[in-house]
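User: My advisor, Dr. K., asked me to get a structural model of this assembly before our group meeting. I'm new to this, so sorry if the format is off. These are the inputs:
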Amino acid sequence: MTHEKSFENAIELAKSMTSGGKPVLAADAILKKSCELIDSCGIAMLASNGNNGYPNVKAMMKVETEGIKTIWFSTNTSSKRVVQLRKDPKACVYFHNEKCFKGLMLVGEIEVLSDLESKKRLWREGCEVYYPLGVDDPDYTVLKFTSKWANYYEGLQNISFDV
Amino acid sequence: MTHEKSFENAIELAKSMTSGGKPVLAADAILKKSCELIDSCGIAMLASNGNNGYPNVKAMMKVETEGIKTIWFSTNTSSKRVVQLRKDPKACVYFHNEKCFKGLMLVGEIEVLSDLESKKRLWREGCEVYYPLGVDDPDYTVLKFTSKWANYYEGLQNISFDV
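Assistant: The format is fine. Below is the predicted structure of the whole assembly, which you can bring to the meeting.
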């Protein structure tokens, strides 16, 4: 899809989401839509507080989720991200569907976990490429994100709610 | 593509990017690769500093770019993002290609512009869906992001450099 086509689609979708200027997205559908969006995404964007007050972003593979409340990732213990999150657990996890012009921002905090139970829980076939020593690899760390509030958008509408 | 397939692809790519544990990505190719990645993306993730010290993320349509130094967006003047950026211009713009497992993080600052020249520059056909009053719409604002430094990753390798 070209960028121009993508832009046209977004405009069409934006138009379709309103009727006479009024939003048509029912509030009670938001949670369901949020979960569906998460389920459809293999990747999430993780934002943390980097050096000198600048936010940093990285794409992360979503490994496990519990509704919109808890999102689990794994990463290298030696990564800059882990250093940042140990210093400041405040984070944002963002899911989006570019074609459908939908996005879900979750704002909350991340726990950096290194207990064996969590590491076993998140371990998948192929993880040894990232963590050659296996599930015990000291360079293998689990990140558990817990949402405090969320913002869901679709077309021109968006709504914020507590999680 | 299923998530499992995506994960397999990432592993294959991660393996192909190293040879006997050594990175094979030449440093002088990074800037070229960064520009190519930006060109291939219609959407960027914009992170700003939200309330109470939490980072916030939103997908934004990339409208214009000048290499990796300057990225231009437009948004609603009334949006929460504009309020945040006026208070704190520190931001992060992130481009990524999920299939190829490539990402570029740009860290820098955003200027919130409302001068007619900038607004005309960024105006595109279809913008009136977002800004019904046209290029003069007071609810139409231009965001000019200027990079200070960058981090590019591909497979298991990543490199940070000043912009």
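One thing worth pointing out at the meeting: The longest strand of chain B covers residues 140-154.

User: Perfect, thanks a lot.
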